[in-house]
Structure formats: structure tokens, C-alpha cells
Design a protein that fits this description.
The protein is mostly helical. It folds into 2 domains: about 50 residues; about 60 residues, no CATH class. Helices cover about 75% and strands about 0% of the residues. The longest helix is centred in the last third of the chain and has 27 residues. The protein is elongated, with a radius of gyration of 17 Å. The chain starts with 8 loop residues before the first helix and ends in a 14-residue tail after the last helix. About 30% of the residues are buried.
Length: about 140
């Protein structure tokens, strides 16, 4: 168990993303908004929680068959694109205040997804060898 990860900038960002996605989900569900709005927020909360657990339990180091930071970047980019479309629709249509609040929270979540993508891009370098068998420089 990596107890330092939740206190790191990436860990705190993942936790904030999960909590904000849950708040967005609850706003959409409580306002009886379109099911797609709630589904997107719920999936974002679930997938981000799985990545948070992956990093906290250090499973990314044990399951080396996938380059997990790159998968995390793809998740953040795709989530940001979907959030942009869905939350703009929710804000433009604003059928009630709950839908409007969910749309605004979703746009804030979009900003966190972009920040997470930038932090992950700074962390990885595709030209640098990975693992223990990499030659020392």
C-alpha cells in the first residue's frame, strides 16, 4: 500500500476527480436529468477510482504488461472530451437547477481532467527506458 500517493499532487488530483464526479453524478440523478448525463459522471467516478486504487496498491508496478500512465492519459483525454459535450448540453438546456449545477460541476471536472493529463505527460517520457533492466546513464 502506497500511503504517500494520496498526499502527492497526482493522488490529491485523483481524489478530487472522484469526489467531483460523484457530486456531478448526484446532481444529475437528483434533478432527473437525461440518463446519459448521470451515466457519464458515474463512469468517470468509477474509472478514476479504479486508477486511484491501481496506483495506491502499486498494481501498476506488478502488472507491467500495460503502460498504465499512458492508459491514464487516454482516459483523462476521452473523459474531458465527453464532459465538454455533455456538460455544455446540460448547461445550455438547463431543464432545472440540478442539471445546471451538474453541468457546472462537470466543467470543473473537465478542468481537473486536463490538469491530470498535463501532470501525467510531464511524468512520462516515451524515449526513456522503463524497468530495472534499463541501462544506467
Amino acid at each position: 500500500l502506497d500511503r504517500a500517493f494520496p498526499r502527492s499532487p497526482r493522488g490529491a488530483l485523483k481524489i478530487a476527480r472522484v469526489l467531483l464526479a460523484l457530486a456531478t453524478f448526484l446532481c444529475f440523478v437528483a434533478s432527473n436529468a437525461h440518463e446519459a448525463y448521470a451515466a457519464l459522471a458515474g463512469l468517470e467516478a468509477g474509472i478514476t477510482l479504479l486508477f486511484l486504487l491501481l496506483y495506491m496498491l502499486r498494481l501498476d508496478a506488478k502488472m507491467r504488461w500495460l503502460f498504465w500512465p499512458l492508459a491514464d492519459i487516454f482516459n483523462s483525454v476521452i473523459a474531458a472530451l465527453f464532459l465538454l459535450v455533455v456538460c455544455l448540453f446540460a448547461i445550455i438546456l438547463k431543464s432545472n437547477k440540478g442539471t445546471l449545477a451538474g453541468g457546472v460541476l462537470g466543467l470543473i471536472l473537465l478542468v481537473l481532467c486536463v490538469v491530470d493529463t498535463v501532470l501525467l505527460c510531464k511524468k512520462i517520457s516515451l524515449g526513456r527506458p522503463r524497468g530495472r533492466n534499463a541501462p544506467a546513464r
